[in-house]
Write a structure and sequence with these properties.
By secondary structure, this protein is mostly beta strands. Helix content is about 0%, strand content about 50%. Strand 4 and strand 5 form a beta hairpin.
């Protein structure tokens, strides 16, 4: 679903998959974990690690460099709500 400044969708993550380092520009992002696990790494050197499971929410502040992964043996499924404008995903070479 797209509105001028809000996007809603889902993301499926394969077991043990890890994304590239990236940020979402001006977008504030909230993820709701439906099933599986999601690990989020951010902060200097990627040292801030948060892991979430079914029923948990993860927030990604605008401009926060991060990567997400699925540390479990089962596929992950999450709902995403993203609010902002501009380019939604900007890949970067590494953590802050």
């Amino acid at each position: 679903m797209h509105h001028d400044e809000m996007w809603t969708g889902t993301v499926d993550t394969e077991p043990h998959a890890t994304s590239a380092w990236h940020h979402h520009g001006n977008y504030e992002t909230t993820l709701y974990i439906v099933n599986g696990r999601m690990r989020m790494e951010s902060g200097p050197g990627g040292q801030d690690v948060v892991e979430a499971g079914p029923g948990d929410f993860l927030r990604v502040p605008a401009g926060a460099i991060h990567r997400e992964s699925n540390p479990s043996d089962e596929p992950g499924h999450a709902v995403i709500v993203r609010c902002g404008t501009g380019e939604p995903t900007i890949n970067v070479p590494g953590p802050a």
